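Late entry, written up from scratch paper. The run itself happened at the end of the previous shift, but nothing got recorded in the book at the time, so transcribing now.
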Amino acid sequence: MWTADRWKDYKLIDASDGERLELWGKYVLVRPDPQVIWKTPREDGRWKRINAHYHRSSKGGGEWEFFDLPEEWSISYDDLKFRLKPFSFKHTGLFPEQAVNWDWMAKKIHGAKRQIRVLNLFAYTGGATLSCAAAGAHVTHVDASKGIISWAKENVASSALPTERFRWIAEDCRKFAEREIRRGNTYDAIIMDPPSYGRGTKGEVWKMEENIYSFLELAEKLLSEKPLFVLLNSYTTGLQASVLTYLLESVFSKGRKCTVISDEVGLPVMNSGLVLPCGACGRVTF
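Output as recorded:
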């Protein structure tokens, strides 16, 4: 498992009976996690001294219960700074397990010793975008939500990164990819973090299992003649790491020599010494 174990401002303190106990900077949150199906004693006193608790509803969704939490706050990862705030469906605006991928991508970009153009699709609030840009890459950041892109721009400003390294696109990722293919634009690295399920601005339905293969075929056409890497994340239940390997090999090995490895990504649990799995990831290197 690829483990995000270099955090200083974030800690997964404990996990028990469907919930995580997390430290985000100086604030303690309890959030649900369907992977946590074990029950262990909640002996850490911070379970009772929390700043906010997200309660999942049996009817779907849920809501936050706040005790002492600001509307927004920030945490850092190395020199990167991220704004956080609690919003719908338990999220805070950052997936801390992805830091292990940020490190890997930054190392690849540094090692290339040339200017790298990165395309980040379904880019959210920009964790991967910031990491690649901090390593020297120029990044095209694509997300369908204008609000999420504004959030990512604020993270860039907080991290004091050069604005000329970023290109911001508020558009459906498939439509953007098709348009870039027609324009003949290419990228040295492509990052994809698609949702398990979603709807486009005009009601288009996205289902990971049904749409990902054709989407990868589009992405393959956007690679430059000298590609560096492709990264695919998945939070879809039942889509195992080995499936990501088969998907990526079947698409990106056509006419190119590449290596594909996939594994779970995870977070270390302080109180137990275990690692909580948090989805899967596939990495293609050329």
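The longest strand covers residues 275-285.
(Scratch paper discarded after transcription.)
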